[in-house]
Amino acid sequence: MTKKDDYIQIQLDNLGKRIKEVRKEKGYVNYEQFAFDNELPRAQYGRYEKGHDLRFSSLIKVLKAMNISLKEFFGEGFD
Fold first, then answer.
1. Is 12 part of a structural domain of the chain?
2. Which of 10, 36, 55, 76 keeps 20 to 30 A from 66, CA to CA?
3. Is the pTM here over 0.85, yes or no?
4. Residue 1: pLDDT above 90?
5. What's the total number of domains in the chain?
């Protein structure tokens, strides 16, 4: 992996951690229940929390389900 690839993966990992953190703040201990309750594909949502790449439109859907703005979301956990 190149330094650029490493940087991208680090940021994807940060994104996954932040998604998981917000989900737990919303009272969901289980990612599958959150995905089910918000009509998101469970397996795909689980990959987001693990730092897999995702489309911006998918991130918007997740944040909408969490009732959090982009500004609030990216306000913590990113450089």
1. yes
2. 10
3. yes
4. no
5. 1
